[in-house]
Amino acid sequence: MGIYRLSDRIVTLDVACAKSARNARALRLQKLAVLLACIAPLSISAAVKNRPAMQLAGYKAVRVHYGPLNKMIMSVQINGYPAKLLVDTGSNEIILDAAAAATFGVGPPPRAWRYIGSTEINGQLLPVAFMQSLTAGNMSFGNSPVVLRDSSRSDVGKAKVDGVLGLEILLRHKAVINCRTRLVFLKIDQSRRMNLSAVALSEKFIRVPLHREVSGALTVPCSIHGQSGRLLVDTGAFVTTFPDTFFKSLGISSEPTRVSAHFPTGMTRPVSAAQINDLKIGDLRVRPSKFGVAALPRFALLQGGTKISGILGMDTLYLCKAIIDLDGMNLFLK
Question: What is the pLDDT of residues 281-291, one digit of tens each?
């Protein structure tokens, strides 16, 4: 088992002998290079030649980059201090590493001695502090409550980021996240109406409706071997992963790897790999690939009253050129 990094820094899973892996990787990179050369940017982020930044009317664009293990990272300023946040649709809140927060001057509200309160996330009771300002590029988010978490009990510190930018802000600003072009668009003119569906469909994208569960999680419909389910859309997950019990029920075998999955509670689970040839996300048939298999924790598998069949991670989102539209609540894939 190996983890292979494409030329654009996206990590995928593969299982093969060394020679076959090298040949497969070379072929995959060759195909990807041809594909990238043929793809024109969507008009939502289209730019004429030499324009420094792509534009979307009524939105401000913020660039992101991919760090280790497919982490979509946004450079920000917190109370005037430079910081890096993981763009994570699998989280509802803004979460900061407690040690990093102290260096940014994030603590109780002005003229108060205590934190705002506390909140429970995945069974952990965490303090809520106050952030006076958060900016990214030329986008200002203003002040905001922020959850503090010890990075020793999460993978935030391991990702070399200072915290997580979750759905609370992304939904508030009707974010459009283009996973391929590394741009996050944030709405600043609420009166503007955009028909992204028409644009995306004209570019041969397939629209998959996003649903927000009672827990706040974003899910999309899927099917494997004709059995339907729902996937959790999680830009904070480095690979698409399915629960081992689900695959066992479908008779799909998996192979062990040297990879482990780390969860915010500090839990670590080994990841296996399994070949899936008939995965569909909405009406999109995903190309045959190897996906992660693990004993996923209960908090990931049950979102409100909805049973989750797997976690749709950044590897698949990138390779399917995903555009996550939190205004129209659609996921566009190609």
Answer: 999 999 999 99
Please give the structure tokens belonging to residue 288: 């045959």
According to CATH, the topology of domain 59-187 is Cathepsin D, subunit A; domain 1 (2.40.70)
Task: Please state, in angstroms and as integers, the Cα–Cα distance from residue 23 to each residue in 12, 16, 20, 34, following that order.
Answer: 15, 10, 5, 17
Of 129, 138, 9, 143, nearest in space to 73 by CA? 9
Interval 290-328: pLDDT, tens: 999 999 888 888 888 899 999 999 999 999 999 999 999
Six-digit token string for 23: 């040949």
* Full DSSP string of 202-217: HTT-EEEE-EE-TTS-
Distance CA 16, CA 27 (A): 14
Closest among 74, 292, 287 to 184, alpha carbons compared: 74
Q: Is the pTM of this model over 0.85?
A: no
Give the integer Cα–Cα distance in Å for 235 and 246.
Answer: 22
**Which residue ranges make up each domain of the chain?**
59-187, 204-333
Reference 295, options 245, 238, 255, 250; nearest CA is 245
Q: Are the C-beta atoms of 229 and 240 separated by less than 8 Å?
A: no
Give the residue carrying structure tokens 């459009």. Answer: 176
Phi, psi angles (nearest 5°) of residue 232:
-80, 120
Tokens of 57: 């009317």
Distance CA 67, CA 91 (A): 18
Coil/strand/helix, residue 198? helix
* C-alpha to C-alpha distances, 295 to 4, 235, 236, 238, nearest whole angstrom: 23, 20, 18, 16
CA angle 212–270–220, rounded 5-degree value: 20
Q: How far apart are CA 278 and CA 287, in angstroms?
A: 8
Helix (H, G, I), strand (E, B) or coil at 148: strand
Neighbour-count burial for 168-181, b at 16+ CB within 10 Å, e otherwise:
bbbbebbbbbbbbb
CA distance 332 to 325: 8
One-letter amino acid of 40:
A
Class (C level, CATH) for 204-333: mainly beta
